[in-house]
Amino acid sequence: MSLGMEILISALLVIGGCFGLIGSFGLLKLRGAMQRLHAPTKATTVGVGASLIGAALATYAATGVANWQGVLVAAFLFLTAPLSGLMLAKAHRHLDRTAVPPTGTGAPWAGERPSKTEP
């Protein structure tokens, strides 16, 4: 294995670990449900994806055979984690309308019915 490949694999694994740690810390320490949802869907997705791609490269460098399972899992994770976070956020918004701040323009949020006080 070449030195450049070892540096690339090491960098991907370290970056993946750092993003995973930051996402986990954010999940524990952030206050609101929407803030806690943001940390794992963004930071941990990048962390696990970088680790999987690094592991796939390490397998390829050691054996010469492509490890497509790791790459496919990373691609599936990159597609599904943001979408599941979006669906959880939409469900939270529809269940708890008091958590949505005012728009600041006088107009309601998209999908909201106007209040009954309006003519």
TrEMBL record:
Alphabetized Pfam families for the sequence: PhaG_MnhG_YufB
Region (Disordered): 98-119
Record-linked InterPro entries: PhaG_MnhG_YufB (IPR005133)
Transmembrane is among the record's keywords: yes
Transmembrane portions of the chain: 6-28, 40-62, 68-89
PANTHER family reported for this sequence: ANTIPORTER SUBUNIT MNHG2-RELATED (PTHR34703)
Protein name: Cation:proton antiporter
Organism: Cypionkella sinensis
Origin organism lineage: Bacteria, Pseudomonadati, Pseudomonadota, Alphaproteobacteria, Rhodobacterales
